[in-house]
Amino acid sequence: MAQTKRSILVVEDELSLLQAIEAMLENEGFDVIIAAHAEEANSKIFLRKEKPSCIWLDLNLPHMNGIEFLEEIRSDPELKGIPVVVVSNSGDERTIERVKKLGVKKYFVKADTDLEHIVKQIAKIIK
Q1: How far apart are CA 42 and CA 55, in angstroms?
Q2: Quick one: which of 36, 34, 29 has its CA closest to 14?
Q3: Which of 16, 25, 101, 110 has its CA 20 to 30 Å from the CA of residue 119?
């Protein structure tokens, strides 16, 4: 039986955090694809370079925000089933409600959540 590839697309504009997330996920055995903004992530997905097992998505991004990115992938029949985990600075209830309606698996507020915990939750989601 072939081993399932476990790849994660991380969309995060804060470089130091992006590097820390990438290192942690790689230590857990994930293939990590990084994007500093939604347009970069879109080009990677829509060109089908990778179809990740999960997407780690920040909402506060330059140019196109995370919600717009999420709406785009949810409208694509080939991509809408990819699990998305939102990791954001915003704890706003309306924002959380809005992205949950778009089918995110988990929503984490950065200040309230340890990165290790998020990595463990992602591992559970894509097992």
Answers
A1: 12
A2: 36
A3: 101
Cα(96)–Cα(107) distance, integer angstroms? 7
For residue range 82-97, list pLDDT tens digits in order: 999 999 998 999 999 9
pLDDT score for 31: 92
Residues of the chain with pLDDT under 70: 1-5, 44-50
107 backbone dihedrals φ, ψ, rounded to 5°: -130, 120
The class (CATH top level) of 7-125 is alpha beta
SS3 23: helix
Q: Which residues pair with 7 in a beta bridge?
A: 31
Chain centroid to CA 62: how far?
A: 16
